[in-house]
Amino acid sequence: MLWATAGVAALGLLVALEVVARRCAGVPGPMTNQVEEVVLAPKPGPLYAGMALMMVVLTWRQRFIAAGVAIGIDVVFVLVRWAVDAKTEDGHFFGNGALWVMLGCAVIAVTRRTGRERVLLLKGVGLGLLLVAGRKTGDTWLLITSKTRPMVLDPYVATADHALGNPSWLAGRIVKDSAPIGTHLLDWVYAQLAVAAIVVALYQLRNVRIERRFPRHHLVRTFLVIGLLGPGIYMLFPVVGPVFAYGPGASGTGGVHWAVANLWPHTPPPIGTPYPVPYDGITPRNCMPSLHTAWATAIFIHSRKGPRILRYGGTFWLVATLVATLGFGYHYGADLIAGVVFTLTIEAAVRSYDRGWDRSGIRLVAHGAVVFVALLVSYRYLPLEMAKHPWVFGPLLLLAMSSVIHGYLRTTRLWEPRAESVRQPETQPELSAVQ
Predict the structure, then answer these.
(1) What gap in Å lies between CA 140 and CA 119, rounded to an integer?
(2) pLDDT, tens digit, for every residue of 412-425?
């Protein structure tokens, strides 16, 4: 019932985004884009990542067959495109094979499987397609934010960021001085966040093939919920980031002519009364909260129970992502604090739903939600006071975030099964009756 409800909700969201994208932006939505990728050249990363997640329900023999079929289909598509001299976007050479394999497995589940095996295979296919659809949905959301929110609130967040010491300006200078090695490494880490997530998720789902069931909670669920709810906050609090609002822009969007002033990263913006400013209709308003920070935090949390190399990798990805988001000017420090609180609240809510809502779960989620709302309200209505009194509001921001972290750690430790409770009781030998 839960999976069916999730499927209906996802379908409803995709239909709604398709309609909004066509009416507001005049472009195809996520459903059209996904259908086109059955034939047209797609971006391969999300499709093969989705297939990798789907294959956790397959045996090793079935995995090799699925991978071989996907690669074979892609080879055929590449040869046909080369023969007809079809033009493709940069980096969009293959990936159709992975989508065909996932769709084929869905057909096999319906026609050739029964009972629990059918349900398990459909869950695997659904998980893979949800990852792909999540990427398409996110792209559509970002486009909608740029078309429907012509005014951005960057001056408010930049002013509030004085309470934290303008970390994006400091990190921007450090990253710029570390070029080219530091910038290339951080750019790779920032762009390959999904790869790190897939590695952690595959570790968590490694026993599905043997146990024939999914674990109660895993990283993919938190990832998808973050991606579903985060863009809604973008619509309420549209922000483009310091490299755009106070710099030359990046990734082919923005520009000095759209900036409030060309200050980033060398000169922090002066303290003054903030006001909404117009920005172009292309750049996504995707800063508040920082979802890269949110996802990296989720990776860090879910890697804690893995082997040492996975724990080290989760820590490295979190630290490197935080440095990259600030150092490239994509986010303000205030965005990162909101992103951490956002993730911990969602993670607590998902885990509370799994184990049943009790007082500790409700209290933790309510605390995180209140802190998150308080952060957004303070950024919007108290930025000038925050900038004028940094030694008061800076520690308060860090204390608010720390309170959510502490509450999450304290509560979830109580949720973990104790070693004594899971240890099997020793059986005492029966004493023979004495005649």
Answers:
(1) 30
(2) 988 886 533 444 44
N-term to C-term CA, the chain: 60
Cα separation, 202 vs 184, whole angstroms = 27
- Residue 318: φ, ψ to 5°: -65, -50
**Beta pairing, strands 277-278 & 151-152:** antiparallel
Give the Cα separation of 304 and 133 in Å (integer): 28
| Residue with tokens 């002519």, as numbered in its chain | 257
- Structural tokens at position 183: 């910038």
DSSP per-residue string spanning 31-64? HHHHHHTTTS---HHHHHHHHHHHGGGS-HHHHH
| Cα–Cα dist 88/81, whole Å | 9
Structure tokens at 256: 């000095």
Q: Mean pLDDT across the chain, nearest whole number?
A: 87
Residue whose pair of structure tokens reads 């792209």 in the numeric block: 139
Q: Coil, strand or helix: which one is 277? A: strand
pTM over 0.90: no
- The DSSP symbol for 278 reads E
The more confident residue out of 78 and 324 is 324
3-state secondary structure at position 3: helix
Helices (H), 178-290: 181-191, 193-204, 208-211, 219-236, 242-245
Q: Which secondary structure element, helix H or strand E, spans residue 135, and what is its range?
A: helix 115-148
d(CA 166, CA 159): 9
| Segment holding 68, helix H or strand E | helix 60-83
Which residues on adjacent β-strands are paired with residue 278?
151
Q: Are 259 and 245 in contact (CB under 8 A)?
A: yes
Instruction: State both tokens at 331.
Output: 């986010």
CB of 21 closer than 8 Å to CB of 140: yes
230: helix, strand or coil: helix
3 state SS of 152: strand
Evaluate whether 93 touches 44 at the Cβ level (below 8 Å): yes
Give SS3 for 253.
Answer: strand
Angle of the 291-302 helix axis to the 308-327 helix axis, nearest 10: 170
Query: Comparing 78 with 233, which gets the higher pLDDT?
Result: 233
Do the beta carbons of residue 178 and residue 326 sit within 8 Å? Answer: no
Assess contact for 331 and 168: CB atoms under 8 A: yes
What one-letter code names the amino acid at 194? Answer: A
Which pLDDT does position 389 carry in this prediction? Answer: 94
| pLDDT tens, position by position, 328-381 | 999 999 999 999 999 999 999 999 988 888 899 999 999 999 999 999 999 999
